[in-house]
Design brief:
This protein is α+β, with helices and mostly antiparallel strands. The protein has helices spanning 3-10, 19-30, 56-64, 85-88, 111-131, 158-167, 169-190, 192-199, 204-213, 215-218; strands at residues 71-76, 79-84, 140-143, 149-150, 226-231, 237-242.
Length: 245
């Protein structure tokens, strides 16, 4: 399952396709006649090959939030909004939900959102483990191409952990969300050189040459990096990426 499909599936009861799904699908058709938007312009210089650190913007956002509730300021399709992440990731109940795309508040694939959810999960994981009598978290979590969770083979509490996620779908959805957003941000960063060169092209022929140069990044069938959600023994989350094998 592609990262875009992972993101869409999380909110399939609310919206069939997000704007950045559409943007991704239309990019290739626009290469010959327009200069692409610099989709990575809002990203920070973080590299997922290393552990995620909190950006200055995210620190400012998080420090401004009131700590007497669970709300965090997130980067959404409707601008920066304070969201209760615990409520936001709850699965829709029955017929509850929005009627159309204009009613949906969804998270944009930005580094600040990844940072905020990373911090939120780091705070939630210790209590989640305690509530489910799990002595320690898995050292890593990753997802296969079908979006199924993968735990280390030597993790002794794998069955217990998966069962706890089934019983607490909000935690499962939040883990899935940060994985999908981090993967999308990671792939967007790879396009930064292309965006910079393409935006400076002086002619259609230059645009075509640049598109050809970066064709391996523009191919819809390219292999995305594997995102690893890394937990230390205290349940603190960091995120890294590695090349798919």
């Amino acid at each position: 399952m592609s990262i875009l499909n992972q993101l869409s599936s999380l909110f399939s009861n609310n919206v069939s396709q997000t704007p950045y799904n559409q943007h991704s699908q239309n990019t290739a058709s626009k290469l010959d006649n327009t200069v692409t938007n610099n989709t990575a312009s809002s990203l920070t210089s973080h590299h997922y090959g290393d552990s995620v650190t909190i950006s200055n913007t995210a620190k400012s956002i998080l420090s401004s939030d009131q700590r007497d509730d669970n709300s965090v300021t997130m980067n959404t399709n409707k601008g920066y909004k304070k969201l209760d992440l615990d409520d936001y990731v709850l699965p829709p109940q029955g017929n509850e939900g929005v009627k159309g795309l204009n009613d949906v508040v969804f998270l944009l694939p930005s580094q600040d959102n990844v940072d905020a959810i990373t911090e939120h999960l780091s705070k939630k994981m210790p209590q989640f483990l305690k509530d489910n009598n799990i002595p320690e978290p898995p050292s890593t979590i990753q997802y296969d191409n079908l979006g199924q969770i993968q735990l280390p083979h030597d993790y002794p509490y794998a069955a217990q952990f998966k069962q706890a996620l089934e019983e607490k779908p909000a935690m499962a959805r939040e883990l899935h969300t940060v994985n999908a957003l981090a993967s999308h941000v990671n792939e967007m960063k790879k396009l930064t050189p292309f965006n910079e060169e393409f935006s400076q092209a002086k002619s259609l022929s230059e645009q075509n040459l640049i598109a050809k140069k970066y064709q391996h990044l523009l191919n819809d069938n390219r292999e995305n990096d594997i995102i690893l959600l890394n937990f230390d023994t205290d349940g603190k989350l960091s995120i890294s990426a590695e090349k798919a094998t």
